[in-house]
Automatic annotation (TrEMBL), chain A:
Transmembrane segments: none annotated. The keyword Lipoprotein applies. It comes from the Bacteria. Residues 81-263 form the Uncharacterized protein TP-0789 domain. Residues 1-25 form the signal peptide. Gene3D superfamilies: Lipoprotein localisation LolA/LolB/LppX. This is Outer membrane lipoprotein-sorting protein. Pfam families: LolA_like. Keywords: Lipoprotein, Signal.
Automatic annotation (TrEMBL), chain B:
It is found in: Cell membrane. It is a multi-pass membrane protein. Residues 244-373, 628-755 form the SSD domain. InterPro entries: MMPL_dom, Mycobact_MmpL, SSD. GO terms for cellular component: plasma membrane. The chain crosses the membrane at residues 19-37, 202-218, 224-241, 248-270, 282-302, 323-346, 352-378, 399-418, 604-623, 630-650, 656-677, 697-719, 731-756. Pfam families: MMPL (PF03176). This is RND family transporter. Its main location: membrane. Keywords: Cell membrane, Membrane, Transmembrane, Transmembrane helix.
Length: 265, 769
């Protein structure tokens, strides 16, 4: 090593810089994890919710398509949430209901009720990277945030629309994820995700997600009114608008099983 | 004799100052070349509001783009159904996702197979990692035999070849750099897997690989044959004029012209394209011709004992008018290309027109200045050669009665053969059969039929319209019709997916393999299926966002452009007859190129023919003679006719490069005509007899025209050695037309004049005043 260093003091400085970087890399992971844990902690205890939403899909040609749906969600402690989605439009799929149990590390479980066939079908698949209803949102973008789903690294402090934010990197732990990594902008005041950038499996920038018009529910839980996903590679986009959202409406496990699918209208 | 204007004589009096100005001009304008960039994308052929371009872009915006890289895996064992092949397919599929700009990778391995299990719909990759057992292999084989979406597309009919197909989303504008990067990455993977699996052959095909092969072939020729062409032109000039100084002076004019034209284009903001890259070659032809006229004239008068300056002045005064007429008329002809609907042809026209004029100015100024300073060898006299041409003239005037009928016969036969030519661009045939790309394409043709595809889009203009039973039934029948066409090798259609889902929903019973009976059922099957697919394997390549349009992909033989467009017409006809309510559009890169080829050819050939006619009109004005102008119409058009007639005899296949040949040779055709006719007119105005005037024209321009032709023949002859058919065909046809132009002007033209002017053996001069 001495051969490359002009003097011992220079070597020492170099050594200090190298170990400093190592320590800092370690710190970045701890800090990233802390932010993720805090984000999750601030969003616990809402129990269940009912929402009405519209998805507006847009392609590079400027054509639009809309899908209306209701989403019932049940919070599950220490695992992914359960969600029941009922499609109201387009007309041909109206009444179709979709039940999913997302899991932090296991494959998700999914059932679908087809009114035209009057049957419930379980979808046995490991795929969670695919598009939800042909939109730019993947299944994995729609399911609940769980700390175990990613490893973390703090990147930098930054500003987003005038607010102080942390920028952290999330690397999916599931080999079936469609992403190699994500960059997430989280505001320091409320630990809300304001923006996310998704990178495909070859590491190229794929999509940008932005959340707008956050509103506070039952004095504790922040939810965005609008989520906007833009695909950088295909120039397609999807806007997800929440029309109404209620928390703690008294839903329980029995509202999220195969039988509840048939009852859903 | 014409007085030499002052702007020319100044270069003779102060050659050094003149040359300094020339060098400064070259530097200043040449700097503009840094602004030049190459655009190889299809859009350069179409104006932004072109309906075909809009239709194609609409399809590209609604569905994903279809440029691709495909790996062909050929096991030596003759079957891909074994564990080793499976692990190769699986791993290479996985790695192919890393190809730059890839958005989708499909193969046997990640094919999303669906089947029923109790009330479950199971969706799974066909080959799972680390589970390539004999049992698994047999299962996959049975799945493939019942899947029309797989068989013939990702696996060959006989199971002897597997395909891994990666879809690439190329950016707009210049894609050359991306194409080269992607191809290099793909070749890297190919080499790596070839080493790991020595019992398999891996080949690379696809649009991106073809574009790369194009770029490489063009580059190879640009680095070897084109410099060789210029070298040969210079050597030929040196030999034929016995003067290295003359050769170097010509080279200076040629290089100066190219630098100024290309630099000027750069300053003006014109990009390079497949058409405008030919501009340097085009302007070279006329620049060489201009210089040779001046040089041969100089040597002629030096031989008569004049001093260098006097001889130069004489040569210039003799040549200035024909050189100006040739250049101006040719330039106007090139400007005519602005009427073409193809933007890059307008660029080509304007650049070539500017080039022709610059070559004209430089050969009248810079060339004489250089010749003043450089030693021009006068030891060897050209007198013998001029005498040879005089005897040639005498032979023609003596036997013109026999020459004319033979000429007419040759022209008629040539015209007959010219009609044998058909426009047929088969892009893969541009490559030598020994080239790596062509071999891969041949393998693909042998096992899978071809690499070309035609995409049909059915628009219903209604959300979820594609699930309407009548629409699905029409699509299914159309797919059936496509499958009955001999040139179609595979059809990917959503109706097959629907049938499969219907079967899955009914516990995989074979009789349930049919289209759903009602729209709700079909829509809900579709929703269910959509919800189960992974990233990159969704249905966006077949369905639009509101399910109102669907795309059917037909994989075809590598057809010629006219066969493609004929097939498209037939397919549209099917819809008119069988499903008149549906709007259908066909588009794909090969189909686009077929249309481009036809378009390009028509605008190029007819544009040039019109230009040649217009030029004859201008010659009427320049020579102030109706009669000679009409004669020039023949001599301008006949070389093209004879050239394309020869081509009909030799090959009969016209590709895109050949359509620019006529423009490329236009300058030389006009040059030969104008110089011969203007010398003939000078003699006639001196009240010489027709035969004497012809002898005079032979003596004064025969040597120059022949020298130019020999020089260019040698130069373009080099291009015929290219492995790349686009270049070798272009070289050969240019050569044929240039030779035809010379023969027309030295044999047919004088014979025709003898016959035409036979009543006016003693001219009263009125017609030529």
């Amino acid at each position: 090593m001495g051969k490359y260093c002009a003097s011992w003091s220079a070597c020492l400085i170099l050594l200090a810089l190298m170990t400093g970087n190592l320590v800092r890399a370690d710190d970045a992971q701890t800090e990233g994890l802390r932010i993720a844990q805090e984000r999750k902690a601030r969003d616990r205890g809402w129990d269940n919710s009912v929402a009405e939403m519209t998805m507006i899909l847009r392609n590079a040609q400027g054509q639009e398509a809309t899908r209306d749906m209701r989403v019932n969600t049940l919070e599950v402690r220490d695992d992914g949430d359960k969600a029941l989605t009922i499609f109201d439009s387009p007309k041909d799929v109206s009444g179709t209901a979709f039940l999913s149990f997302s899991h932090a590390s296991e494959p998700d479980e999914q059932w679908i009720y087809l009114p035209a066939l009057k049957r419930v079908k379980r979808i046995a698949s490991r795929n969670k990277s695919g598009p939800f209803m042909g939109s730019e949102f993947a299944f994995e973008d729609m399911t609940s945030f769980e700390v175990e789903k990613f490893s973390y690294r703090f990147i930098r402090d930054d500003q987003f629309n005038g607010d102080d934010v942390y920028v952290i990197e999330q690397v999916p732990q599931d080999e079936f994820s469609g992403y190699s990594r994500q960059l997430v902008w989280i505001d320091k005041a409320h630990y809300r995700v304001r923006k996310a950038e998704f990178f495909d499996r070859k590491g190229a920038a794929l999509k940008i997600l932005e959340f707008e018009d956050y509103e506070l529910y039952i004095g504790k839980y922040w939810r965005p009114k609008t989520s906007y996903m833009f695909n950088l590679q295909t120039n397609k986009s999807t806007k997800l608008v929440t029309h109404s959202l209620e928390f703690k409406v008294g839903l329980d496990e029995s509202d999220f099983d195969k039988n509840s699918l048939r009852r859903a209208r | 004799m014409v007085a030499v204007p002052a702007w020319i004589t100044v270069f003779l009096n102060r050659p050094k100052t003149g040359l300094l100005g020339f060098v400064v001009l070259c530097l200043v304008i040449g700097l503009g070349a840094k602004n030049l960039y190459f655009r190889g994308d299809y859009k350069v052929f179409f104006e932004p509001n072109n309906p075909q371009r809009l239709a194609f872009e609409e399809m590209q915006n609604i569905f994903n783009k279809s440029e691709n890289v495909a790996f062909l895996i050929v096991p030596q064992s003759g079957t891909i159904y074994d564990p080793v092949s499976f692990s190769l397919i699986h791993d290479l599929t996985h790695d192919a996702w890393q190809l730059p700009l890839s958005t989708r990778v499909e193969s046997l391995s990640n094919y999303q197979h669906t089947y029923a299990e109790d009330d479950d719909l199971v969706v799974t990759d066909l080959i799972l990692s680390g589970r390539a057992t004999e049992e698994q292999v047999l299962w996959v084989e049975s799945v493939v035999s019942g899947s029309p979406e797989l068989k013939g597309r990702l696996v060959s009919e006989n199971g002897d070849v597997a395909v891994i197909n990666a879809t690439i989303q190329l950016p707009d504008g210049d894609q050359t750099q991306e194409v080269i990067e992607i191809a290099a990455f793909a070749r890297d993977l190919q080499t790596r897997y070839q080493q790991d699996y020595p019992n398999h052959r891996i080949y690379l095909v696809g649009m991106v690989i073809m574009n790369d092969a194009f770029a490489v072939a063009a580059q190879n020729d640009a680095q070897t044959l084109i410099p060789l062409m210029y070298l040969l032109i210079i050597i030929m000039i040196a030999i034929l004029t016995h003067s290295w100084a003359a050769a170097l002076a010509t080279l200076t004019v040629v290089v100066g012209t190219i630098v100024i034209v290309m630099g000027g284009a750069g300053w003006y903001g014109i990009y390079l394209s497949t058409a405008t890259v030919n501009v340097p070659t085009m302007v070279t032809t006329l620049a060489v011709a201009d210089c040779i006229h001046v040089i041969v004239g100089l040597r002629y008068f030096l031989g008569k004992g004049l001093n260098r300056k006097q001889a130069l002045l004489e040569s210039l005064s003799l040549n200035i008018k024909p050189i100006l007429i040739t250049s101006i008329t040719t330039a106007i002809g090139f400007v005519m290309l602005n009427f073409s609907a193809v933007p890059i042809l307008a660029h080509l026209g304007n650049m070539a027109a500017a080039g022709v004029m610059i070559a004209c100015l430089l050969s009248l100024t810079v060339l004489p200045a250089l010749l003043m300073l450089m030693p021009v060898n006068t030891a060897q006299k050209d007198e013998g050669k001029h005498a040879f041409f005089r005897r040639g003239g005498q032979w023609v005037t003596r036997y013109y009665r026999r020459i004319l009928p033979y000429s007419a016969l040759i022209v008629l036969v040539a015209g007959g053969f010219a009609s044998h030519n058909e426009l047929n661009d088969i892009a893969v045939k541009y490559f030598d059969p020994d080239s790596r790309f062509r071999q891969a394409v041949d393998v693909q043709e042998r096992y899978l039929g071809g690499m070309s595809n035609v995409d049909f889009v059915v628009y219903t203009n209604e959300p979820y319209g594609v699930t309407e039973p009548e629409v699905l039934a029409s699509v299914d029948q159309f797919a059936g019709w496509l499958r009955n066409q001999p040139q179609v090798h595979h059809v990917l259609t959503f109706s097959d997916t629907m049938k499969r889902l219907s079967m899955n929903m009914h516990n995989d019973e074979a009789e349930a393999y049919r289209l759903p009976q009602n729209r709700e059922l079909a829509s809900q099957y579709l929703l269910l299926y959509e919800m189960s697919l992974p990233y990159g394997l969704d249905l966006t390549n077949q369905l639009d966002i509101d399910k109102s349009a669907l795309r059917i992909v037909a994989v075809m033989s590598n057809l010629g452009s006219n066969e493609f467009t004929a097939f498209e017409t037939q397919a549209r006809q099917w819809f008119v007859q069988n499903a008149p309510g549906l709007r259908v559009e066909a588009a794909s890169p090969p189909l686009m190129f077929a249309h481009i080829g036809e378009r390009n050819m028509q605008s190029m050939v007819w544009g040039t023919v019109l230009a040649l006619i217009l030029i004859s009109g201008l010659i009427v004005l320049a020579l102030k003679s109706w009669r000679l102008g009409l004669v020039s119409l023949f001599t301008n058009l006949l070389p093209a006719l004879v050239g394309f007639g020869m081509w009909g005899l030799l090959s009969g296949q016209i590709n895109m490069a050949l359509s620019v040949v006529l423009s490329m040779t236009m300058g030389i055709i006009v040059d030969d005509t104008v110089h011969f006719l203007s010398k003939y007119q000078i003699a006639r105005n001196q009240k010489k007899r027709v035969s004497e005037s012809i002898h005079y024209a032979f003596e004064t321009v025969g040597l120059a025209l022949t020298t130019t032709t020999l020089v260019l023949v040698a130069g373009f002859g080099v291009l015929t050695l290219s492995d790349f058919a686009l270049n070798s065909d272009m070289g050969l046809l240019t050569l044929i037309i240039i030779v035809a132009a010379l023969l027309v002007d030295l044999i047919f033209l004088p014979a025709f004049l003898m016959w035409l002017d036979r009543d006016r053996q003693v001219s009263n001069g009125e017609h030529y005043g």
